[in-house]
Design goal:
Radius of gyration: 21 Å
Strand order of the largest sheet: 3-2-1-4-5-10-9-6-7-8
Largest sheet: 10 strands, mixed
Structural class: alpha/beta
Strand content: 15-25%
Length: 332
């Protein structure tokens, strides 16, 4: 998902197809993902409540076990003399245990086997540790916009988890419907910039599309400046071929994947608008791992999409390869 590189302009169609083949064939097919263990991180906020229901839906669909994690940040706080802070901390701890027990009971009523974890520490690091120690296959987070798209409800927590998690992460943003599954006609939208590092996130889109019996839409956004130009009719045709190849590269048999190109001056808005127009149940993005210092840009595309989308967003972070070829400039 990004603006076209200058190299695209005036490049013969055969050369564009050759570049497409290079991108898609750089990596051998990977093992298809399975989601036997799903984790939902909760702070008991409304955003986390929506994430919990999304996690329940996924567990029901895949027959997964659910780990419900709350990170207790106050356990090691130093009590202030004479103000009853120790008692307050004990009450907070007990309240958290009660909430976790209630969520576990609700999961059981939905037929989902669940375990609860109450841990102390830094939320981002603790979530990462739980992902590894509990052998989690998929994590679900809830987010809420603060000052627009610049911040997430966990502060930098969701940011750190999305960037460093070795597994896919589904984020339920403030505008998202909580449920991923119920309406089969709603598509799964895989948005891509054809970067070799991230194109294989299509595997997760394909798995969820197949499991939910939903259409798979593969989407690429072109700059608005190209709309109406001499190449405006040729480029979408070329990209549609590439998008079809991306769908095939998932390794799953996807019935008639929809290859879509759209024009937009702002990539995130174009993706969000497309998903909203087609009533998408899920957006899937591949993102490149980067230092956290570089992810605080307010206009960062992935976080714009997460906080503005009317459906949950699945992200999978991949290690960046500086020399990897791409049909589009890096944007995530």
């Amino acid at each position: 998902m990004s603006k076209l590189t200058p190299a695209f302009s005036g490049v013969p169609e055969s050369d564009n197809r050759a570049m497409t083949s290079t991108v898609l064939n750089q990596s051998s097919p990977e093992t298809m993902p399975a989601f036997a263990r799903i984790l939902v991180a909760t702070d008991f906020s409304p955003a986390s409540r929506a994430a919990f229901h999304t996690a329940l839906d996924l567990c029901t669909m895949f027959g997964s076990t659910l780990t419900i994690l709350h990170v207790f940040e106050y356990v090691e706080a130093t009590p202030m003399p004479g103000v009853g802070s120790i008692v307050d901390l004990q009450n907070l701890d007990q309240d958290a245990r009660n909430w976790l027990h209630a969520l576990k009971r609700e999961a059981a009523q939905s037929g989902v086997q669940a375990v609860t974890l109450l841990r102390a520490g830094s939320p981002a690091a603790t979530i990462q540790e739980a992902i590894l120690s509990e052998h989690i296959d998929l994590a679900v987070l809830g987010t809420s916009a603060l000052h627009g798209f610049e911040r997430l409800v966990f502060g930098s927590t969701a940011e750190a988890v999305l960037r460093k998690a070795p597994i896919p992460v589904i984020t339920v943003g403030p505008r998202a419907r909580s449920a991923v599954l119920p309406e089969q006609a709603r598509p799964v939208v895989f948005a891509t910039d054809f970067h070799a590092t991230t194109v294989h996130a299509i595997r997760f889109a394909a798995v969820l599309s197949q499991a939910t019996d939903s259409p798979l839409h593969c989407l690429h956004v072109l700059p608005r400046s190209l709309e109406g130009g001499t190449l405006s009719s040729a480029i979408p045709t070329i990209l549609n071929e590439a998008l079809q190849q991306v769908a095939v590269s998932s390794g799953l048999a996807v019935d008639h994947p929809v290859a879509a190109t759209t024009f937009g001056s702002e990539v995130s808005n174009a993706v969000v608008d497309y998903a909203k127009q087609h009533h998408a149940k899920l957006i899937v993005l591949g993102i490149r791992q980067a230092s956290l210092a570089s992810t605080h840009t307010p206009a960062h595309i992935a976080y714009r999409i997460i906080t503005e989308a009317s459906c949950p967003v699945l992200t999978m972070a991949f290690e960046s390869h500086h020399r990897s070829h791409s049909l589009a400039a890096a944007c995530l």
